[in-house]
Amino acid sequence: MGKRVLMAMSGGIDSSVAAMLLMEQGYELEGVTFRTFDSISESCLAREKGCCSVDAIMEARHLAETLGIRHHILDVRELFRDTVIRDFIDQYLKCRTPNPCVLCNPVIKWGRLLEFADEIGCEHMATGHYARVASNEGRHFLKKGVDRFKDQTYFLWRLTSEQLERTLFPLGDLTKDEVREIAAARGHVRLSQKKESEEICFVTDDNYRNFLRENVEDLDERMPAGDIVDTAGRILGRHDGLYNYTVGQRKGLGVALGLPAFVAELQPDTNRLVLGSRDDLCSSGCVVSDLNLPGRPDFGDGERVVCKVRYRSEGFPARLYRKSGGKAEIRFDEPVFAITPGQSAVFYDGDDLLGGGVIQNAIR
Length: 364
Description:
Among the domains are: 4-128 and 170-206, Rossmann fold (3-Layer(aba) Sandwich); 223-277, SH3 type barrels, CATH 2.30.30. The chain contains 9 helices and 17 strands.
């Protein structure tokens, strides 16, 4: 049973090469691709390519047939709609900026996939993520992928030790260029040249505003127009609904101030959009909820970490302090720009991912 692996296949180069490598290592694979849509007219299929598109499913099935792997299509429409999409909408209605992949990974990609793996007799599951799994005294935790630019551990911080124990990441020790070379060397030249999509899979053309308008009937009533103010409360203009903005945004503000201005805060109670200078957006820390520390559950107050508050970041030196109710407070050594409620704060010790949490608020 240990040699049987459920391989998550998106139709893209990463999961495809991961499947090839596992087969060459002697594993017996079962391929699986998610179905997250009801019909080909739904918004997530409007893009030409993507992890939930018809094209992706057909490409994954074709590759599985080429490799001699049995392929399954797993229907997760209801679960996906009731968790990932529901949370995405709810967070924007609360004037927060969500990261749907962070929720999708533990609930859908690992939660449902491991259930399915048990159903068909696979002990492990595998994906094409650029990450590694390590263990220490019975704990299983994430390590950064060797390719620092492609490392995806930031999106995986919610995975548990139990989920990671059953996970294989064949690409964790490879760079993206090496993955492309492997695909080409095995005769998959077209696949090796395939472009990647980093958009949200269910949002057409990466335009979340249109998605909200299409899926929230009374959006303009729930999030009406209101005042744009500066940090002193002086009215500068009018916004057209707080859902159109996110902390740190600079373009599309609808006002001309003669100097650089950024969204500093969204105030749902007063329906005000606060603009400020870059310095106004620099914070000394933040509070996070939903704390998960699989890498070090006994983490002590005030211990040193490197904290990433956005994916494309090297991270910032900080100290982490536990709070009650599954929360923590992060205090940075130096002020950090545009800490955004709803996004993830992820903690590292070198290459080891210690854990993470959802940002509730910045501490000025």
